[in-house]
Amino acid sequence: MDILICEDNIEQLYELQRIIKEIAQKSVFNIRIYLATTKANEFFQVLQKKCYQPGALFILDIVLGPKQPTGLQLAQMIRKNDAWSSIVFFTTYSEMAYLTFDYQLDALDYILKDEVAGYKRKISDCIQKAYLRQNHTPDAHLEEYQTLPLKIGSKLLRIREADFIYAQTSLNKHRIMIVTVNQQLEIYGSLAKLLLLSDNFCRCHKSYIINKNKVKILDLHNMELVLVDNIKCPVSRKYLKKIKKELGY
Prior knowledge:
Layout: E1 2-6, H1 10-26, E2 32-37, H2 40-49, E3 57-61, H3 71-81, E4 86-91, H4 97-102, E5 109-112, H5 116-134, E6 147-152, E7 155-160, E8 164-169, E9 175-180, E10 184-188, H6 191-195, E11 201-205, E12 208-211, E13 215-219, E14 224-227, E15 232-234, H7 237-247
Parallel strand pairs: 1-2, 1-3, 3-4, 4-5
Antiparallel strand pairs: 6-7, 8-9, 8-12, 9-10, 11-12, 13-14, 14-15
């Protein structure tokens, strides 16, 4: 798998190369750094020639130097003709991550430069995910890459379907609460519309929708579902038969 990097800070570019080469030496995956540059224009020329392997991994700094296209603009160029390659953003600004959703670039991940202790692991994880995607990951694992479009105010946010645990109606009118493995969100919307986003979502109660892949126990005595992290959601008799069928009970 080819890896292409555009990072305008030369020291951070060298560090990325060092980490990737170290990962490559220990990995069973066939990976190589095809391009590592500080210049967006050089990166753009390679994109035009399309001489890298299909399904490549792109690592892009969101904010590049003056008078250069941004990493977001480079990602848009990639996505015009390449929906399958993986894009990872490497940035100092955590608030910039939301822009990747606004641009609808289907980014695999974003890595914060300041999290030095953790970004080697994240780079390794991204390489593994990108490699599996390139090499035709079986359908059973595709959920890991599916994302859900959610609107929070004027922002369009995408969360991984695999991270979704459950949702419930909010005390605030016309809003629902969504709980994922790493965050809790309140958005405008309805459970009925959310239910349409995935076949893995089931209604267990008029006020709750769960991800059936997160269910650990169906407790018929207490009429509740026990999900990951010991999260409990009520089950109403109206939806019990359907829940049992969906979960294979």
